[in-house]
C-alpha cells in the first residue's frame, strides 16, 4: 500500500512539473512583443535652410528640413548657445518649424536638435542687437501731433518699423537707427509700443487729449512725528523717493480746482511709498463738489500693491466733473510718494438753485460787511468785527453782511432747493437778521427757523413765500445783520448754502 501511494505522489508531481514547463514555454512565446508595436529608431533629421539670415530679438525664423516629426517638445534650437524651446517655437511640422530669436542670441550657425539628432546650418545667422528706448520727447499730445522716440538699434527701413498706442497703430513718419517719428492716432491714452523688425518694445504711457491737472493742494494736516518732509506736499514734489506719512491711519491728498471750476478725470498716475507699497491697497481715487467732501464719489479702488519706484497708470471712466479730486487712504497713513491727475479742467456745472459758499481769500470780497464793520478770512470762516465803542446799551449798531449774488452769475432760485441755511457763531443776541431777495421777498428774524440753533445753524424756507418754480434774480441779494443793541463785537460765518429739504440739511450737519 505504501509503494502505491509513493507512485501516485510521483505521478502527480510529474504532472505538476509538466504544467509549469508548458506555461513557461507558452508565456515565452505569446508574451513576445507584437512586431507592430516595436519602437523603431527615429530617422535622422536634415536641415536644409533658414530665413531670414539676420534678425533681432523677437524675429521669427523659419527653418526647413526633413524628419522633424510632429512633436515640437522633442526639438531644441540654439543660437550660438542661446536655446529656444517650448512657447518660443511658434509653429512646428515635419518639414518646417518657425521659432523666435531669443534676446541673448549671437551671430553664428543655428543648431537644431530633434530626438537626439543634431544638425548645424551651413550659413551663419547674423544677430542684430535688440533696440531700446532712451526717451520720448513728450508724454502727452493731441491726435495728429508728431512725437519722436529716441533710442538705439532702431531700423532706418521704415517698412520694418511699426508704432502702436496700446493696440492702435500710429502712422510712422520717419525712421533711423536712433529715432522714430510718428503721428498720434485718434485713440485713448495707452502705452507706446514699438515693433522693430519683429522685436516688440514697450515704452512709456502716453496721454492723448489729457492735461496734467493741478490746483490748490488739499489734504490732511500734519505728519507722523511732525516730520515736515512727509507732509502732503511730498505727494506732488516730483520725487518718488519722498512720501506722505499722515499723523493717523486716515489721510488724503489732492487738489481743489477753485470756484466755478471742475476736473474731468481720464487717468491717474501714482507711486507708493517705497518701504510700504502694500499700504495703498484699498486706497481710493475720489471726486467731490462739496467743500466738506461729504458728497465724495469713489472713482477707482486700488486692489493690489503697486510696484515701488515706478508710476502705475490707471484709467478713470466717468462722465462727471469734480471740483475736488484726491487720493483717500482709510488705514494706510496716506503712504504715497507721488500722485498725478490727468484730464481737462472745465467750467463747473451747478444745478439751478444749488448754492454753496465757502470763505477763502479769493472769494471773500464777494461778501461785504457794511457800516463800520471790518473782516478777515481765517480757518475757512468770515470773521466780522464791528465798533464796540459805539455800544451804550441803547443805540443801534449795524454790521450788515451784504452779498451781491446777482453780480456773480445770477443766482437762480428754484423750489428744488428752497432751504437757505447758514452757520453763524457769536450771532448778536439783539438785532435784525434778515434776507432781502428781489422777486421773492424779505425774510426777517420771525421767518428763520431755529431747529438747529444749538448747533449755530439757522435756516429760512423760501418756499413759504414763493411758490414759483424758477426765479432769476438780477438785483442785489442782501443778508442784513443790523440794529444791534447787545454787547457783541463781532460774529463768524462758517458757511451759507441751500438744501432740497430740512432732512438734507440735517444730514449735512450730522456729517
Brief sketch in words of this structure:
This protein is mainly beta and 511 residues long. Strand 34 (432-437) and strand 35 form a beta hairpin.
Widest sheet: strand ordering: 10-12-15-14-13-16-17-11
**Largest sheet composition:** 8 strands, mixed
Give the number of DSSP strands. Answer: 39
Radius of gyration from the CA trace? 41 Å
Characterization of the model:
There is one protein chain. The longest helix has 29 residues, at 2-30. This protein has 511 residues and is mostly beta strands. The model is unreliable at 1-22 and 24-38 (pLDDT under 50). It has 2 helices and 39 strands.
Features:
511 residues, mainly beta, 8-stranded mixed β-sheet, 7% helix, disordered N terminus
Give the arrangement of secondary structure elements.
Elements: H1 2-30, E1 46-51, E2 54-55, E3 60-66, E4 75-79, E5 82-84, E6 89-92, E7 96-100, E8 108-114, E9 117-127, E10 132-136, E11 140-141, E12 146-152, E13 161-165, E14 168-175, E15 179-183, E16 190-196, E17 199-208, E18 211-213, E19 216-219, E20 251-256, E21 261-272, E22 284-288, E23 297-301, E24 312-315, E25 324-329, E26 336-347, E27 356-357, E28 367-369, E29 374-378, E30 381-385, E31 401-403, E32 412-414, E33 419-425, E34 432-437, E35 441-443, E36 457-461, E37 470-472, E38 478-482, E39 490-499, H2 502-510
Amino acid at each position: 500500500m505504501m509503494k502505491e501511494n509513493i507512485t501516485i505522489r510521483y505521478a502527480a508531481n510529474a504532472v505538476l512539473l509538466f504544467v509549469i514547463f508548458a506555461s513557461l514555454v507558452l508565456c515565452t512565446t505569446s508574451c513576445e512583443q507584437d512586431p507592430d508595436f516595436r519602437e523603431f529608431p527615429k530617422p535622422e533629421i536634415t536641415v536644409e535652410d533658414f530665413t531670414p539670415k539676420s534678425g533681432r530679438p523677437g524675429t521669427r525664423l523659419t527653418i526647413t528640413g526633413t524628419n522633424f516629426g510632429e512633436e515640437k517638445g522633442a526639438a531644441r534650437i540654439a543660437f550660438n548657445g542661446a536655446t529656444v524651446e517650448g512657447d518660443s517655437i511658434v509653429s512646428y511640422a515635419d518639414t518646417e518649424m518657425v521659432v523666435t530669436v531669443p534676446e541673448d542670441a549671437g551671430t553664428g550657425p543655428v543648431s537644431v536638435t530633434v530626438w537626439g539628432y543634431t544638425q548645424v546650418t551651413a550659413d551663419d545667422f547674423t544677430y542684430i542687437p535688440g533696440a531700446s528706448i532712451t526717451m520720448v520727447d513728450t508724454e502727452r499730445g493731441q491726435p495728429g501731433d508728431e512725437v519722436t522716440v529716441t533710442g538705439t538699434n532702431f531700423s532706418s527701413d521704415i517698412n520694418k518699423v511699426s508704432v502702436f498706442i496700446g493696440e492702435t497703430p500710429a502712422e510712422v513718419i520717419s525712421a533711423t537707427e536712433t529715432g522714430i517719428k510718428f503721428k498720434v492716432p485718434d485713440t485713448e491714452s495707452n502705452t507706446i509700443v514699438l515693433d522693430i523688425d519683429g522685436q516688440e518694445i514697450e515704452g512709456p504711457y502716453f496721454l492723448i487729449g489729457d492735461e496734467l491737472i493741478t490746483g490748490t493742494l488739499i489734504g490732511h494736516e500734519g505728519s507722523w512725528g511732525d516730520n515736515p518732509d512727509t507732509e502732503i506736499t511730498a505727494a506732488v514734489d516730483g520725487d518718488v523717493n519722498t512720501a506722505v506719512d499722515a499723523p493717523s491711519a486716515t489721510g488724503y491728498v489732492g487738489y481743489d480746482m477753485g470756484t466755478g471750476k471742475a476736473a474731468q478725470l481720464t487717468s491717474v498716475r501714482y507711486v507708493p511709498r517705497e518701504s510700504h507699497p502694500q499700504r495703498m491697497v484699498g486706497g481710493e481715487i475720489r471726486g467731490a463738489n462739496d467743500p466738506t467732501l461729504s458728497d465724495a464719489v469713489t472713482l477707482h479702488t486700488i486692489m493690489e500693491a503697486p510696484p515701488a519706484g515706478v508710476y502705475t497708470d490707471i484709467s478713470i471712466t466717468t462722465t462727471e466733473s469734480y471740483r475736488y479730486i484726491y487720493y483717500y487712504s482709510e488705514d494706510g497713513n496716506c503712504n504715497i510718494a507721488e500722485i498725478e491727475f490727468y484730464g481737462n479742467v472745465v467750467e463747473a456745472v451747478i444745478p439751478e438753485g444749488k448754492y454753496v459758499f465757502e470763505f477763502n481769500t479769493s472769494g471773500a470780497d464777494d461778501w461785504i460787511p457794511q457800516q463800520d464793520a471790518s473782516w478777515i478770512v481765517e480757518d475757512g470762516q468770515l470773521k466780522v468785527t464791528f465798533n464796540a465803542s459805539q455800544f451804550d446799551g441803547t443805540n443801534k449798531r449795524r454790521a450788515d453782511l451784504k452779498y451781491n449774488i446777482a453780480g456773480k452769475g445770477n443766482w437762480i432760485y428754484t423750489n428744488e432747493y428752497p432751504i437757505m441755511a447758514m452757520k453763524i457763531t457769536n450771532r448778536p443776541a439783539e438785532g435784525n437778521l434778515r434776507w432781502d431777495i428781489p422777486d421773492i421777498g424779505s425774510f426777517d428774524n420771525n421767518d428763520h427757523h431755529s431747529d438747529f440753533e444749538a448747533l449755530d445753524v439757522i435756516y429760512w424756507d423760501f418756499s413759504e413765500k414763493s411758490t414759483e418754480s424758477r426765479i432769476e434774480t438780477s438785483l442785489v441779494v442782501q443778508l442784513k445783520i443790523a440794529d444791534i443793541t447787545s454787547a457783541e463785537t463781532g460774529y463768524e460765518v462758517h458757511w451759507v448754502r441751500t438744501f432740497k429739504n430740512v432732512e438734507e440739511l440735517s444730514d449735512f450737519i450730522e456729517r
